[in-house]
Amino acid sequence: MHHKLLLVLIIAACAPAYAQVNLGGMPMNGQDPLLPAPLTLQIPPINISQALLEDSNTPGQNRFAAPVMVDIQPETAGAWTPVSDGKLWQCALHAK
């Protein structure tokens, strides 16, 4: 057991780390008051009775989220806004 853990730690320590290259500046975050607000997409509510039934079949496990199937793509949802260095895609979501 200890050998396996040690092996995993050695492999993890030797694995190269990848990250986004910092080119300076601030990312476009959509907080510019001059940008139009995108339409808000309503996420369908979960079936609470179904979720409670599933939870009753798995005692001792605490659910913190439930999957909801959506089809959100930049081509079909949200709004594209031209900005100085390209385009900004914004998509607002609302779920209950």
Overview of the structural elements:
- The chain has helices at 2-14, 48-56, and strands at residues 40-42, 79-83, 86-90, 92-94.
- It has 96 residues and is an alpha+beta fold.
- Strands 1-4 form a two-stranded parallel ribbon. A two-stranded antiparallel sheet has the order 2-3.
- A hairpin with a 2-residue loop joins β2 (79-83) and β3.
- The protein is flat.
- It starts with a helix and ends with a strand.
- The model has no long low-confidence stretch (mean pLDDT 79).
- Which word captures the global form? flat
Q: Rg to the nearest angstrom?
A: 22 Å
> What is the count of β-strands?
4
Instruction: Assign the structural class, choosing from mainly alpha, mainly beta, alpha/beta, alpha+beta, or little secondary structure.
Output: alpha+beta
Order of strands across the main sheet: 1-4
**SSE run:** HEHEEE
End-to-end span in angstroms?
Answer: 45 Å
Q: How many helix segments?
A: 2
Taking the sheet with the most strands, its summary is:
2 strands, parallel
Parts with pLDDT < 50 across at least 5 consecutive residues: none
Strand content: 15-25%
Indicate the percent of residues in helices: 10-25%
Whole-number mean pLDDT = 79
Short key terms for the protein model shown above:
about 100 residues, alpha+beta, two-stranded antiparallel ribbon, 2 helices, about 15% strand
